[in-house]
Structures are given as structure tokens and as C-alpha cells.
Amino acid sequence: MIASVDDLHVTLRGNPVLRGVSLSVRPGEILGLVGESGSGKSMLALSLLGLLPPDAHPQVTGTVEVAGVDMVHGSAAAHRAVRRRELGVIFQDPMTSLNPTMRIGRQITEVTRDRAQAVQLLEHVGVADAALRLRVYPHELSGGLRQRVMTAIAVAGRPSLIIADEPTTALDVTVQAQVLKLLRDLRDEYGCSVLFITHDLAVAAQITDRIGVMYAGRLAELGPTRDLLTAPAHPYTAGLLRSRLSLSTPRDRDLPTLQAEAGSRGSGCAYHPRCPLAVDRCAEEQPPLTGSDHQKSCWRDISDMPAGNSAPDPGGHGAAAEGEPVVKLRDIRCDFKVRNGWRRAGTLKALDGVDLDVAPGEAVSIVGESGSGKSTLLRVIAGLIKPTAGTREVTGGTQMVFQDAGSSLTPWLTIGELLRERVLKLGRAEQDDRIEKALTAIGLPITVATARPRQLSGGQRQRVALARATIVPPAVLLCDEPTSALDASLAASVLNLIRKLRGDLGMAVVFVTHDLAVARLMGDRIVVMTGGRVVETGAADDLVSRPQAEYTRTLLAAVPEITS
Amino acid sequence: MSDAAVVPRRFGVRARTPAVHNKNLNWVLIGLLGLITLIALTARWLAPDDPIQPVGDFNLPPGSPGHLLGTDLIGRDLLSRTLWGIQASWLSALAVVLVGLLAGGLIGLVAGAAGGWVDNVLMRLTDLFLALPGVLVAIAIVAALGPGLEHTLIGISIVWWPYYARIIRGEVRALAARPHVEAARLAGAGKGRILRRHLLPGAVPTAIVTASLDIGNVVLLLAGLSFIGLGQLAPAPELGADTARALSQLLAQWWVPVVPGLAVMLLSLIANLGGDALRELLDGRR
């Protein structure tokens, strides 16, 4: 075994983050660790590295061994030696984990001690002009290249285990596909093991040999990738698979969701409050992880699992009405001045001649990778950015929901105060009435009105942002990746809410996303953008099944799918 | 098992523990700021004797009966003089800081929120004041208006606000770039409303912390100016002036200059520690 963890319990600041995890990484395998935020997957990685945050006063019981060294108790020097010789690490954001003040070359030679080898490594991870690139700083590279450099550093010391914590989450899908392939190739060549941490089952499906599904600090299920995906043994895994939004999810019904988090969980299985199979025993006794090759931690038999919980969309979603478009953009151009160091300023064409019509009540999805101009377009519609050229006609009000709901809500104001701002013209009694109605419509209790944003969870905050946008229904609701920061099960319920609000209020929706599967589910029509231009527009299902543009095909091919 | 483990930011429950062990100490330090202010305000009743009239023998050492801190060269009670001195120094420092905070804060707020040419004009004006050697300008103003505590305060206030304008403008600028301001604009909030509700409250903690850390500086500057004869006029008690005038006695009767000198040190120390404590508490809250 390269690394093994046995009955590991970790408590940080009095909160249990790992509650009895046993797991071993076999030589040469890629082991996926999948779970939602807070499931403890990153803490497991930090435990293996011997790098649990000391200021959180970690209390650890159980054993963690890497290459035969105890990573819990041994000396700091021994831990360092293991990290240097046996481990390589790739983090989610290479911009923050690479040193911004050091040239790439020096950062690699810190490990290799040899320039020639550094060049060879960079070539190996697919960086063109490797010898020249040694002289650049991290900020001069694109996200994909940075992650390749990070990978080069991780493999430079010929580690026996690479720990990759969400290495592709911050990357565009097409780049993600390349980085996944790179990791696989490196594993094949060097024969090292990889512990691959991700929140996305489909990404894990692309690359892993085995998958461990984590829930609330425990392994819910652990088994060979193919088995686990085709025949999940734990209701949580089954629920995750079912609620995953893919290119084949039915468009005409509510998106399948997991039961929302409920109450405290007592001494039994942590999943039982959300579990459709829960019986009394589940609330009282913690199920052990049982089985030989494909292990599960559940008292029940998965074959009793009821069929999908998605109800047909009751009102259908709002249909596009005939009539004058509410948004009419013609040949919109948007130039940004960019400065390249102290050199002369250049011009970035964020939008390069975009036409767009949105009919009343229509849902349009705009898809593109980072830098495609999709968010800029949304801002032009909202009137936040004045286009350099072109005409913009927007009838009726627009409202916007941002990617990061947390930072779009003023932190020191209460939810009630934030909502009230939109209805100041009304009388006091009517204001209260509208606030109550808006909160009810998004499924939050009225007591939320006295809370401040940081007291809410991410999903609740995004709901509040929606309430704020729709308390006075706008003609067009603009959504800028509203669910990309949310866990899968939460994301689906927020998407359902947007669809419901659209139907109830008769708004048009313009939904910006990088995810084609989400775009297909949220839009009647999809607009594909790259480099500030629209490359293809089409009805949602047509565009996905019969893409015309080369770029759309590339994008579709890169979407990770679980094929059974 | 606590809920907090599953849903870290559950309603109303916030797990924030760093620096818990310091929290009580912080409140004590902030309490000291209040205590000093209270002492300064009630010096008139706290002081056992008249600070200006001789009330006992000359140069009594500390601990003499009736004169806890001793008496000075002409037999004035040192405790009374120090208490009155604390009043003069502390309240003056508070006044200067308050004026700086209001004037500088307003300019910084407007500049940071407006941006563009308004920002440029206001900030270049601020730069102009920052470029002047502050203390010298203050001295020049005092020299022009004639010595006296009020004139010294006017002089210092005129050169003191630019620091606040700078700091608050920077803070507001950073806040203005955050999505919640854009969201408020989209929600239909007007300029005044955004300024009042979505920007100002965010800059308040920084302003308060900066100001409380600054009180110590002003106390020292006032003492320094009084020391060279530009502060409180002769018989009235002022800590810096009292230290300066009695300096020749340092070897013979050390307590006469040291008592007011120590008081200056104490004020400045408490102001700094209190400011730090305030910062920690407010940082924790954001």
C-alpha cells in the first residue's frame, strides 16, 4: 500500500470533520474521492499530507500512514521527508499555489535541481516552447498552462502518490479534458498512484479506477468506478447519480433533486434524515463499511430504492409569447483597454458584434468558456456596461442574479432591509406583505428577514438573491452562473426555482453558464459564444443533438458524461 | 454532536473561535479607553486640590500625606495637575481625531464613491496637504494665531484630516468594487442610498480603528508642541508643558517632570492597545 488510513477521526475546533474513515491507496491506481463541500474530502487529503491546520487545534485518532511513515504522530522532519520524496500535490487554483514572485523555471528546479530536467518535464506535461516558458511568471500563463506547470512540479520528485484536490474545477471544460488526460498519461508512465478529489461524479468517472463517496466525514461507499456508477449500493450515491444534470436529463419536468438537508442527525447514519430508505435503525446505529471489493456503509438494500422523485413540471415552463422582443441588441461591440505591464495599452474585444433578441417570456441560455464575453453581454443587457458601439433596446425592467450570491448581498444589511429596498415606493404595510410573499415564493421562512447574509447557507443566499430580483417581477431576469458555486443537489433545486418563478411571473430569462447540460435545461434557445462572437444559436435540443458549428462540437465532446 | 459540523453557517449559529482567549482582554482594553475618557471628563471633581494655586510645601516627594504624587517647585499638587493635564491632553486629542475623522471621512467617502474627476480633484487636494510637513505647518499656524491650546488644536486639525481621507477613500473604493454595490444599483438604489447604506457602514470599522490608534499620536504631538511652548499657556496644566518646565529638576526632584511624562506615556499606550483591541473585535465581526 502506498498510503492507508484506518478508522481516522479528525476534529477541528470541536467540529468533527472526519468520523471514522478507512481507506487505502493501491500502487498505480487512480482513486477518486467524491463528495459535497464539507464532506471531509479535502481534510482527508490534508491528513495524508500531515498538514492539518494547526491553528484549528486538530484532534486526531486512528492512523494515517504514507510509505510506512505515521503522518499523525511522527516528527515534523519525517513528515517533510515523506512529502518531499513520496508525495506530489495539485491544488484547485494554481494561481494561488504557485509563487507569483518566482519564475516558473525556478519553481520547478526547486524540486528537480536541474534545468534540463525541468525543460523535459514541461515538455512532458504538454507545455510548448518549454525552454522559453521557464522564464515567465505564473500570471503570464493561462489557467490550463498553470495547472500543467503545477502538475509538472507535482511529478518532478517522482512521487509514489499524487494528491490532486479539485485540480480541474477552476478550468474550462475543454481544458479540463486535457488535464484529465495528462494525469492519466502520467500515471501510466510513472506508475504512481493518484488520489483524485472532486465534487463531480462525472469527472471522477472519466479518470478513476476506484471511487470513494464521502458523506459527512465518512465513506458512504467505496468500489471500482464501473461498478459504483452502474450499480450504486448506497442511497446517497444513487441519489447523486440520479440528480446529476446531464445532456439527457428530461427538459419538460422538474429537475431531480436530493432531499434537502434536515435537522440534526443524532447517533445513527448521517444520511438518514435525507434518505428515502431510512428505517428506525438508521437513526440509532452507525452502519459500518462492509463488503470486500465494493464496500458500502448502509443497513438497507439498495434494490428497495423508490424510483425517481422528479414530478412533471406542473405548469410546463413559461412559454415564449409573441410580440416585440423585450431585449433587442444589434451589433454590440465592447472594447476594454488592457495594459500589458508598462508596455502600450492594447484593446480587448470582449464583444465583437453581437445581435440578440429575447421575446417576452422566453428563456435563452448563453454558453461559453471563460473569456467568451458571455458575462459582458449580460452586463450590457443589464445596463451595467455601456457598449462601445451598437444599439441596445430593453423594454421593461431587468434584474440580475450573480454567481456569488454571498458577495452580491450587502453583508451588514438584513435580508428584510435588502428586499425592502426594492419596494420603497409602497406603503409600509404593503412592503411587509410583498417581502413575506417573496420569501414564501422562494421557499424560505419569514424569519429569514431578520438574518444577515452570512448567517445563511450558500443555497439560501442564492434564493434570497432570487427573491430580491423578483419581488417586483422584471421583464427579463438575468442569471450569471447562479449555481456554479453550489453543490449539485442544491444547484438543481435553485434551477427548479428559477424555472418555477419564470412560469409564475411570466418573465423572460437570460441564463449565462459554462455548462452545456445546464444551458439545455434552462433555455428554450441556446446561444453559443466564443471570443466575443456568437458562433451558433438554436433550439435547445436541436443544438445539443445536431450541433452545426465546429466549436459547439468541441464543447459537447468535452462535457464529461457518465456512460453505463 | 453539534449541528454546526453539518451546516457550518446554520441560522443564527456562527462558529468563530479564533482569538477567543483574547476576547476578554480586548474588552478590558476598550474599557480602559472609556475609563480614561471618564477620568478626563470628571477631572474637576476627581482632583483633590486646585491645580494652579500652591497648596503645600515645595517639591514634596510622592506618598507625602495629602499629596499622593507629591508637589512641584512652587507647591502645587501634582496629582491634581496631572488629572487636569489628562483632561486637556485627552479631550484635545479626541477633538482633533474627531475633526479629522469627520472632515477626512466625508472627503474620502465622496471621493471613493464618486470616482472619476471628483476623486481626482479631492485626492490631489489631499496629496497637497500630505506633502506639507504637518508639524511645521501646525507650528506656523500657532505662531500666526498666537500660542494657546485652541490655536494648537486648530493648527493640528488642519494638517490631520488628509490621513483619514486617504484611508477611508481606499476602503470605500475597495467596497465599491464589490458585487453587492452593483447589485444594489441594479435593485434601483440611488446614489445617496448606496453611499449611506451600502458603502458607509463597511468603512466604519476601519475608520474607528484608525481613529482610536491615532489618539495616541495626537496626545504625543500635543505634548511635544506644549513641550516647546506652543500649547497650553503657562499656569494652566498640560502634561507636555509640565514635563518640559520641570525638566531641570530631573536629577534633584525626579518626580516633578516624570509624573506628567509618565501620564503621556500611559495615555498613548492605552490608546494604542485599545485601538488594537477594537480592530481585533471588529475584524472578527466581518
UniProtKB/TrEMBL annotation, chain A:
Where does the record place Low complexity bias?
311-322
Coiled-coil stretches: none
- Domain ABC transporter: where? 3-241, 336-556
Pfam families per record:
ABC_tran, oligo_HPY
Q: Which domain of life is it from?
A: Bacteria
Q: Bias regions of kind Basic and acidic residues — which residues?
A: 293-303
Describe its membrane topology: Peripheral membrane protein
What name is this protein filed under?
A: ABC transporter ATP-binding protein
Which organism encodes this protein? Paractinoplanes durhamensis
TrEMBL record, chain B:
Domain of life, per the record? Bacteria
Signal sequence segment: none
Enumerate the transmembrane spans. 24-47, 90-118, 125-145, 151-168, 203-234, 254-275
Pfam families per the UniProt record, alphabetical: BPD_transp_1
Which keywords does the record carry?
Answer: Cell membrane, Membrane, Transmembrane, Transmembrane helix, Transport
Where would you find this protein in the cell?
Cell membrane
Task: Fetch the PROSITE patterns from UniProt.
Answer: ABC_TM1
Q: How does it sit in the membrane?
A: Multi-pass membrane protein
Q: Provide the primary localization.
A: membrane
Give every ABC transmembrane type-1 domain span: 86-275
Asked whether the keyword Membrane is assigned, the reply is yes
Q: Which InterPro entries match?
A: BP-dependent_transpt_permease (IPR050366), MetI-like (IPR000515), MetI-like_sf (IPR035906)
- PANTHER family in the record: D,D-DIPEPTIDE TRANSPORT SYSTEM PERMEASE PROTEIN DDPC-RELATED (PTHR43386:SF1), OLIGOPEPTIDE TRANSPORT SYSTEM PERMEASE PROTEIN APPC (PTHR43386)
* Family of this protein: Belongs to the binding-protein-dependent transport system permease family.
Q: What is the protein name given in its UniProt record?
A: Peptide ABC transporter permease
Species, as recorded: Paractinoplanes durhamensis
